[in-house]
């Protein structure tokens, strides 16, 4: 087939929140579709109803939207080859399973779990490769009747012929699997539900997928999928091209997992990472446009992305790098965009309730923290001092405003700022520099440190004089006076 019309799919089984590896796959799928002017399909593989829940499906859809990976066909969007939820395609899989049985590519297998375990045990004992031994391949009608009379359930198994399967992986080159290591496999469970291998292969063909870009954990399932294509009568030229993406590793070089890093994209979202930062970082994790840039926009990614430039060795996830990129992306936001991203964090943490006056104050305050944060989740703690009703100095900093030297500083600050009429960051700074640094001869860190704690409640705050301007004269003086009573 001439692959003029590229069709790429992202096909997660949402048994939990999508993780970093899933999203990198989705991003590469999307980028490849956009680069080639092709179609990006989003298919939910939810045939395992015991593990995939409606919440996880909704979350997967929401995550992809949040990341900006817009799909052309899929849930909520529809498309010519739908439905795109496998749970709504069960009759299609049943049709093909029945056809495979009729063609003798597949057969009913009546082996019980105990019998299968006994076979495995014997294989282990004689150092043979584990796998189904073909026991039910050629049952006679009498044998089938006897099994049925015993009330045995049957699964549908695909017959794997002798030989091997070879295909060219666009990232790894030629890959071969000896069938002695690919035993006859189950297509349909005893309860009639299809397994992944059947559903994924049938759908990739029916949805006219041309390229399967996915994680390398699925490499070994490829010969089984190819076997299904053969049974469907698909011509070799119509097989999709496979490209298996290398794993994302944690800092310890083991596959990234909950144990060695944060894997769930929901976690990154809550921790205040921008979708552009995640996409930027993941795009360059295992792929490069041929230079050593660390910043890339989605537009550049779609212009430059090719499968050939995906690295075949595993990539290491580096949180520090992601944070640095996130900081860059936050700094690059316009004030309006920054406000849009920051508001949910302020509202969720109940620092503000969302009144117009609060939002106006947030808007004036955001520029002074934009340079200083690497995660949006830092915004509430940074701006809380402007909104708290029952202001109090945080307990860890108390000792730093109650000592004699700090009291001196605060008394002087109160006295010198009280007459100030024009209250701006530069007038406040000029007064305090003159009195605390020049007259009292204090070091700025010591002098301003005490004022910072008295006014903001913490040793960590946005720039002091800008903070004081935003908070206003009355509140500043009131907080300084009350610090003097501590
Ligand atoms: N649904 C499979 C999974 O989430 C992936 C399917 C595929 O990409 O082939 O593991």
Q: How would you describe this structure to a colleague?
A:
The chain has 486 residues and is mainly α. Among the domains are: 89-245, HUPs (Rossmann fold); 334-388, Helicase, Ruva Protein, domain 3 (Orthogonal Bundle); 395-484, Arc Repressor Mutant, subunit A (Orthogonal Bundle), CATH 1.10.10.350. The protein contains 20 helices and 11 strands. Helix 7 links the parallel strand 8 (211-215) and strand 9. The relative contact order is 0.09. Residues 11-13, 45, 200, 214, 218 line the site of glutamic acid.
**Strand percent estimate:** 5-15%
- Small molecules bound: glutamic acid
| CATH class label of the domain at 89-245 | Alpha Beta
The main β sheet shows up as: 3 strands, antiparallel
Which features characterize this protein?
three-stranded antiparallel sheet; single chain; Helicase, Ruva Protein, domain 3; mainly alpha; 11 strands; 486 residues; binds glutamic acid; Arc Repressor Mutant, subunit A; Rossmann fold
């Amino acid at each position: 087939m001439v692959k003029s019309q590229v069709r790429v799919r992202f096909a997660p089984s949402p048994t939990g929140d999508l993780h970093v590896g899933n999203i990198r796959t989705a991003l590469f799928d999307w980028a490849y579709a956009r680069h080639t002017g092709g179609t990006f399909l989003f298919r939910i593989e939810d045939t395992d109803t015991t593990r995939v829940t409606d919440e996880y499906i909704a979350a997967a859809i929401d995550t992809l939207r949040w990341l900006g990976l817009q799909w052309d066909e899929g849930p909520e969007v529809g498309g010519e080859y739908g439905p795109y939820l496998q749970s709504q395609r069960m009759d299609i899989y049943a049709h093909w399973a029945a056809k495979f049985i009729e063609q003798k590519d597949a057969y009913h297998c009546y082996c019980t779990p105990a019998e299968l375990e006994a076979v495995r045990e014997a294989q282990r004992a004689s150092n043979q490769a584990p796998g189904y031994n073909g026991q039910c391949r050629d049952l006679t009608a009498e044998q089938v009747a006897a099994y049925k009379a015993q009330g045995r359930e049957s699964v549908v198994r695909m017959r794997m012929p002798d030989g091997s399967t070879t295909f060219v992986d666009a990232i790894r080159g030629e890959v071969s699997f000896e069938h002695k290591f690919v035993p006859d496999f189950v297509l349909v469970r005893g309860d009639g539900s299809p397994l992944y291998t059947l559903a994924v292969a049938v759908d990739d063909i029916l949805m006219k997928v041309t390229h399967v870009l996915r994680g390398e954990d699925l490499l070994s399932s490829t010969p089984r999928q190819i076997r299904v294509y053969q049974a469907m009568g698909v011509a070799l030229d119509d097989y999709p091209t496979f490209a298996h993406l290398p794993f994302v590793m944690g800092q310890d070089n083991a596959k990234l997992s909950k144990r060695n890093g944060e894997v769930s994209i929901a976690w990154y979202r809550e921790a205040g990472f921008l979708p552009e930062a995640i996409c930027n970082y993941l795009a360059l994790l295992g792929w490069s446009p041929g230079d050593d840039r660390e910043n890339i926009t989605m537009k550049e990614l779609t212009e430059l992305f090719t499968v050939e430039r995906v690295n075949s060795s595993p990539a290491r996830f580096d949180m520090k790098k992601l944070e640095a990129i996130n900081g860059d992306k936050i700094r690059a936001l316009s004030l309006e965009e920054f406000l849009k991203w920051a508001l949910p964090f302020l509202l969720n943490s109940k620092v503000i309730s969302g009144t117009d006056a609060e939002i106006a104050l947030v808007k004036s305050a955001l520029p002074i923290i934009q340079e200083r944060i690497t995660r949006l989740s830092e915004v509430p703690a940074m701006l809380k001092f402007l909104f708290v009703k029952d202001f109090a100095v945080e307990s860890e900093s108390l000792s730093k405003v109650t000592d004699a030297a700090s009291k001196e500083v605060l008394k002087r600050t109160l006295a010198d700022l009280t007459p100030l009429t024009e209250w701006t960051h530069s007038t406040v700074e000029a007064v305090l520099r003159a009195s605390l640094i020049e007259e009292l001869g204090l070091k700025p860190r010591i002098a301003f440190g005490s004022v910072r704690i008295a006014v903001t409640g913490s040793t960590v705050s946005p720039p002091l004089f800008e903070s004081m301007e935003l908070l206003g004269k009355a509140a500043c003086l009131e907080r300084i006076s009350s610090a003097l009573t501590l």
